[in-house]
Amino acid sequence: MSRRKEITKKDLNTALRYISRDARRKNKALGLETLYEKDGYLIKLDPSGREHRLKKLDKRRATNTPRVIDLD
Question: For the chain, how many structural domains are there in total?
Answer without folding.
Answer: 1
